[in-house]
């Protein structure tokens, strides 16, 4: 529309990137959503990559995405999804417009790496959940050794500028615990071959619960 700001470099790149996601990452997305039920809040929905993967036990999904060009693609994906999905303009860092609704689950996929303050965003997710509700996450996380060194160098230079403020060397699982969640399962995965120096190759998939 006239007067709208042009899409960011990341927003222009991201649709092509997710169309070429490694099969290992898609399997992690499926694992992350398995067993969900009830009302779900997805934060940082992007183009709606998760939408076709939601199980039929999910009653409805509210998906928030702040980037207009990505949100438009997410709306298209929602129309073809197997469950009811409502796409809204919104950011992980401020979920207050959704109050007082409480959700059975919050889904975060490749988003905690890019928010300016992960613990603040996680506090928002904590508040949006009912007692006993769960956070499902699949996220870039800090690695050890040579890959960790590469991550720190990438985060300090070109990587955040190119990939929408993504920081690959974050203690995301620790941040989830510090936000008050009980992490009941989490595992580390390499989604790219060990010989490939990819800062985003180290990921964690897991589930955390808001204490009842």
Automatic annotation (TrEMBL):
Q: Which Gene3D superfamilies match?
A: Vaccinia Virus protein VP39
Pfam families according to UniProt: Methyltransf_11 (PF08241)
The residue ranges of the Methyltransferase type domain are 41-136
InterPro entries cross-referenced by the UniProt entry: Methyltransf_11, SAM-dependent_MTases_sf, Thiol_S-MT
- SUPFAM superfamilies this protein is in? S-adenosyl-L-methionine-dependent methyltransferases
Question: Which GO molecular function, any one, fits this protein according to its record?
Answer: S-adenosylmethionine-dependent methyltransferase activity
Name assigned to this protein? Methyltransferase type 11 domain-containing protein
